[in-house]
Amino acid sequence: MADAIRAALTSLIDHAPLFPPASLPVPEALAEDRRARAGEHAWMLARLVWPASRLDELEGEDRALSVLLDGPYDGDPRAEAVETRWDAGLDGLSGEAYVELPLGDGLEEKVAALAGRGLRAKVRCGGAEVPLPAALGRFLAACRNAGVPFKATAGLHHPLAAPGRHGFLNVLAACAFADEAALGEEVELTAVALRWRERTADADELARVRREQLVAVGSCSFFEPVDDLKALGIL
């Protein structure tokens, strides 16, 4: 893969239009997802995030899913992944399962427990509370050291960090350069490389980071990050 932009952004967005702040009704959520799939930047789409309790509202919808386990779940042939929370327990989880972890005491032990079971991690980067860069950086380091891939969600609609928010390109840079300082500093993505300070990560390195670390970004909007990337001249 020669293009660093493609390496960084392919299948990046797990689309979650039912969830805040978009909170679209089901017909509008599905219409928005179909519009995203039909557009020129559909290559950036990954799965549709959908709660287990509402799978019956997807009857006849042919779409790869990441199922949020908010209730009983008997499986779904469209599900490629499931998502849950640490306090719901790990029993019964297998395959590509993302477990949202609290960013507090015992974080490294929790990540190690996921590694031991072949599970993946999930981190909330915004919403009711925006974690400090040091807390998010600790999560990234724990996952990197344990070899645990993860997805990031909430508050990551924008590529670049700004006061009061994180940016998904900054998270990618912090992974690529193994340095939490990249979470709050200027980064640049071109067809050649992701750049931060005097360091660069080329397409091959970015593809590795996407495979082994930052697998996806959950966003209730697909078009907001796309529009921001256009405004930056990346797309």
Walk me through the structure.
By secondary structure, the protein is α/β, with parallel strands linked by helices. Helices cover 31% and strands 22% of the residues. It has helices spanning 4-9, 26-38, 107-117, 133-146, 168-176, 203-212, 223-231, and strands at residues 13-15, 45-51, 65-68, 79-85, 97-100, 120-124, 150-153, 187-189, 193-196, 199-202, 214-219. It has an eight-stranded parallel beta barrel with strand order 1-2-3-4-5-6-7-11, surrounded by five helices. Strands 8-9-10 form a three-stranded antiparallel sheet. Helix 3 packs parallel to helix 4 (133-146). The model has no long low-confidence stretch (mean pLDDT 96).
